[in-house]
Amino acid sequence: MTFLFWSSVxxxxxxYIGYPxxxxxLSRFRPEPSPPPTENWPTVSLVITxxxxxxxxxxxxxxxxxxxxxxxxxxxxxxxxxxTDRTNDIATEFQSRGxxxxxxxxxxxxxxxxxxxxxxxMGDIVVFSDANALYEPxxxxxxxxxxxxxxxxxxxxxRVDFTPQKSGTAHPxxxxxxxxxxxxxxxxxxxxxxxxxxPIYAVRRALYIPLDPAMISDLMEPLLIMCHHHKRHIFxxxxxxxEAILPELKNEFIRKERIMTRxxxxxxxxxxxxxxxxxxxxxxxxxxxxxxxxxVPVFALTAFTANVFLLYHPFxxxxxxxxxxxILVSTIGAMLDRLNIGPAILRMPHYFFTANLAALTAxxxxxxxxxxxxxxxxxxxxxxxxxxxx
Length: 390
Fold this sequence. Notes:
Blueprint (H helix, E strand, L loop, with lengths): L1 H26 L16 E7 L6 H9 L8 E8 L5 H6 L6 E6 L5 H11 L4 E6 L3 E2 L3 H6 L7 E11 L7 H21 L10 E4 L12 H13 L2 E13 L4 H21 L6 H4 L1 H14 L1 H13 L5 H26 L8 H20 L23
Parallel strand pairs: 1-2, 1-4, 2-3, 6-8
Antiparallel strand pairs: 4-7, 5-8, 6-7
Helix pairs in contact: 1-6, 1-10, 1-11, 8-13, 12-13
């Protein structure tokens, strides 16, 4: 029981403190590369997948048409994944302005839709986006200039969330994304990132690997490009995409459960990515940053259970008290979140508990063979604040 307790605690500490510290330390020995100036911009295909996005698709297309990338080298593709609302009609209105609409008769899922779009795309670089993701005017330039380096196969931008209304979900989620941005910056310097940001990432079309529709594309496409083609995946924080955070934590729970279910299912379909004899240090990164993080609730439950069996020792009575106290504070945070009152700091334990509960539920789904291929989007309000990247 002592071994189970401390080994579980060690894994949790490694996930949240140890790995970020190690990757930061290693990044200090690797200078940040600066791509050469780009004179001849490559052709780009911006792929927007949409299912019943009538409330946001017009704003998205206006945003895409206003981007600062050379217009003659930018192709805009909307893949309507079996939409039954006005999405197709709205996208059709933009065809005279160069928007290409691909209509799928039935909903097949985001990954299948992207496979179809890439097969028809003409650009040297394919950028994947969501219908509710609004890009800063210079976002594509920040993404694309890195491809002047031959060892780059994928570049992702930074998702900057905002909240259209007062929400207890916003502060913890934004703090989490800030931490992720730092880790991805360090991973980019050391070797390669371990999964992209779905609303804004780009790949070389020649390297694109058609995926099984059961896989989640923004995780697996960059991983497979790195493992198969040995082309790096890097993070560009100045390529900014904005979208609203779901205001209620229960909706954020559903989103996280869906994403993690798809991620765990995808990794189960390609277990060889964890093999360090095949993928070297990159496999260690995938295990540390992805797999172990999604398994944190398993280690937390193991530590709690082992702790119960060790209550004969005063020290372990104290550690159990700390764990129970955390659960109580999380419960208080849940009540504050429901009432939408109290400072954000009091809701952090509740957010952490909910995120790990979503991971545990996703793991259960994966073990039972359940997956999420299609879903109906939930969209809060829009109108994000503007931002300039120095």
